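Obj: model holo form, ligand = calcium ion.
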Amino acid sequence: MLLVEDDRELVELLSRALRDEGYSVDVATDGHRGLHLALTRPYDVVVIDRGLPALDGLELLVRLRARAVRARALMLTALGTVHDRIDGLDAGADDYLVKPFDLDELSARLRALCRRALELHDVLRIGSGHLDIAQREVALPDGERVPLTAREFTLLRVLATYPDTVHTRPALRRVVFPDASSPSIVDTYVYYLRTKIDRSVVHTVQGLGYRLGAL
Ligand code: CA
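Output (holo structure tokens):
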């Protein structure tokens, strides 16, 4: 996520707390830097303070939305009037939090935004090909489309959503096949995907599990 906040003490506190929760956090302490980062890196969530030097938080958000940046946005503000809230939502904020706020409340709201951020991906890259979420198909680099069954799709979607993560077999079984009794179900479906799409679509990490491959 990207945190755009000029209060250095708050930046310290928030970035430490968020990293402790497992988020990867970039920080900008003025609006211009925030704009530059948000336009050049793919964030799931941006947290923007309303009162910022160089470029006001509202203006920053309006510019991001105008440039089709779809990251979920949480606006922080010292002002809590109804009009202020409406301004923030009109500018394209998904949520709004009035300072001073409780860290637990911020965490809960960020968790909700991150869940919604997952829905943002309508295609997921697989090397030079991609997974089409709406159609449940893989598009090969040569343009050929391969339709997937529900379970094949879910397995590949998890791998493609976190392409740099090595997923263990037990973790994939829990997430993708919670009702399955066969201990080898993950291997079976990896085999199906490789047969149907290409051997290279799933990469085996010896002794650990699987990670997304490349097409
Ligand atoms: Ca401020």
